[in-house]
UniProtKB/TrEMBL annotation:
This is Spermidine/putrescine import ATP-binding protein PotA. The gene is potA. Belongs to the ABC transporter superfamily. Spermidine/putrescine importer (TC 3.A.1.11.1) family. Part of the ABC transporter complex PotABCD involved in spermidine/putrescine import. Responsible for energy coupling to the transport system. Residues 8-238 form the ABC transporter domain. InterPro entries: AAA+_ATPase, ABC_SmlMolc_Importer, ABC_transporter-like_ATP-bd, ABC_transporter-like_CS, Mo/tungstate-bd_C_term_dom, P-loop_NTPase, PotA-like, Transp-assoc_OB_typ2. GO terms for molecular function: ABC-type polyamine transporter activity; ATP binding; ATP hydrolysis activity. It catalyses: ATP + H2O + polyamine-[polyamine-binding protein]Side 1 = ADP + phosphate + polyamineSide 2 + [polyamine-binding protein]Side 1.
């Protein structure tokens, strides 16, 4: 993307609190109309990045632009952004319409314009007819919609959302994820979303920046981050995976060979690697098949079923493989359960392309 296509641009941004560096040399751009998520565990720096974009924190160093303008010296109310927090801060003594109109009234817009914008915002969030209700009369999901409408009614260039669904129960949270994505697509406003919930980020985002220790571990599309993680942290944080420690013993051509204990596994590295490189092999549980029978081209390991957990849509098998360790295998429950029982021998199989090879920068598997 060119600079003119970016709504948010951070270049070598760092933020320190005393001796603690919360954000360390972060650079990324958010395209116009994009749903962009900052994903990571608590304390990783994602909320600090959001607060710098909004203006509630100032960078210690680096450049921060919104729509091409350097905003480092601008206070929050002068930036073309608005923010939705986890704690919605709605005014309980006001009606829904009054809550949504509050920011427009502070700008002293004409009453007719305020009424028109509030009506449009209510329709956008599917709350038409709720304008005279008190906030205390609304459900959690309805209050969330009011907060979103209040933020969008001012027509920000960028809407910032800091874990806004964290207080909702699971079912309502999943419904609101789809609603947020619908709203974003409908209006085309750029959304920057902070979350620690991997499923939430995967459901809504166009791209995700995975943050760890104040740095970006990987920034990519949702499918690329899940299917081809570049670090062990990303592989383990996005979804679930088996991480096998090994050493590249044969390289060349499309397929290489990794020694994992006594086993020799065929893999397809993203880039050529020298022999004796210490690596981690990331293998998602759903990529492994329980056999026999198995395709002739598959890697094969023999093991014993240690445990079986029924999870509704699928069943998870824990299989102990001598010299390798325990591997999790997910089998979809679309058909009657496979005749595998705890204590029984099984064969595991997967294609070379299903495994992701992650070189270890320290020179050893960690």
């Amino acid at each position: 993307m060119t600079a003119s296509e970016l709504d948010v641009e951070l270049t070598h941004v760092s933020k320190s609190f005393g001796m603690v560096r919360a954000v360390d040399d972060v650079s990324f751009g958010v395209g116009r109309g994009e749903f962009f998520s900052l994903l990571g565990p608590s304390g990783c720096g994602k909320t600090t990045i959001m607060r710098m974009i909004s203006g509630f924190e100032a960078p210690t160093s680096g450049s921060l632009k919104i729509r091409g303008q350097d905003v480092a010296a601008q206070p929050p109310f002068r930036r073309p952004t608005n923010m939705v927090f986890q704690h919605l801060a709605l005014f309980p003594h006001m009606t829904v319409a009054q809550n949504i109109a509050f920011g427009l009234e502070m700008e002293r817009l004409p009453k007719a314009e305020i009424g028109r914008r509030v009506g449009s915002a209510l329709e956008l969030v599917h709350l038409a007819g709720f304008d005279r209700r008190r906030v205390s009369q609304l459900s959690g999901g309805q209050r969330q919609r009011v907060a979103i409408a209040r933020a969008l009614v001012k027509r920000p260039a960028v809407l910032l959302l800091d874990e806004p669904l964290g207080a909702l129960d699971l079912k309502l949270r999943e419904e609101m994820q789809l609603e947020l994505k619908r709203i974003q697509r409908e209006i085309g406003t750029t959304f920057v979303y902070v979350t620690h919930d991997q499923k939430e980020a995967i459901t809504m985002s166009d791209r995700i920046a995975v943050i760890n220790g104040g740095r970006i571990e990987q920034l990519d599309t949702v499918s690329a981050i899940y299917e081809r993680p570049r670090t062990a942290f990303v592989a383990g944080f996005i979804g679930e995976t088996n991480l096998l420690r090994g050493r590249l013993v044969e390289a060349g051509g499309e397929t290489a060979t990794v020694a994992v204990g006594e086993a020799r596994l065929a893999v397809r590295p993203e880039a050529p690697l020298p022999r004796d490189t210490e690596v981690l092999v990331s293998l998602r549980p759903e990529k492994i098949r329980l056999g026999p029978p198995l395709p002739e081209t598959a890697n094969r390991l023999d093991g014993t079923v240690e445990s079986i957990v029924y999870l509704g849509s699928h069943t998870r098998y824990r299989v102990q493989v001598p010299g390798v360790g325990g591997l999790d295998v997910d089998v979809q429950n679309a058909e009657p359960a496979a005749p595998h029982e705890a204590g029984r021998p099984v064969t595991l199989g997967w294609q070379p392309a299903a495994a992701v090879v992650i070189p270890q920068p320290s020179g050893r598997a960690e």
